[in-house]
Amino acid sequence: MTQLNIIPPRSGTAFILRKGQQLKVVDIEGEQVSDFICYNLNDRAEYLSSGRTIDYAETIFLTKGHPFYSNRSNVMFELVEDTVGRHDFLLTPCSADTFRIIYGHQHPHRGCFGNLCEALQEYGISPDAIPICFNIFMHVTVDGTTGKVDVLPPKSKAGDYVILEAKTDLLIGMTACSAEMSNNYAFKPIGYQILDPAAQSAVASATTGSATS
Fold first, then answer.
1. What is the pTM of this model?
2. Where is the DUF1989 domain (predicted)?
3. Longest dimension (CA), the chain
């Protein structure tokens, strides 16, 4: 079985996901958000677009079966499994400015934005190139009359997960979110696995062939 990689609380990571591979993102302890962003590995000026994805889906509640689009209207990945069904694609990654402006912190944490900046720097991604992230497991409500936005505790429980399938080669940035309200005021790790269905199918076929020969 593929090993579960761990993103420690209030930190981030970056890695490559190839076309056809799947990424399983696991809420290990429950009520923990993961900010997720991706870029076309071969042209990093193409990135995940909140506006285009929501526009084409005609909903802000993105879940199993929804394709996610780039700023060039190409499908970057599809959400193929989702045990929670509630995530956010409206709010920006938390940052030192978030903690200063919203929480009043005098010595703010660098937040998901700072963690993504550090993780993606080695791949040539500048801070200004980090857009709105897909906030996996984040629970955001919008009042239909006033438009007021509220951040509520995630609906995810320990062991809940999503699986994303890459439709092109991707550069991924991910965090274990640093914002208090987003995670019900407790900071926990996020787990992830890279799955390769094609390779698994080939191994299964070879095993079956050996058993029957």
1. 0.92
2. 6-171
3. 70
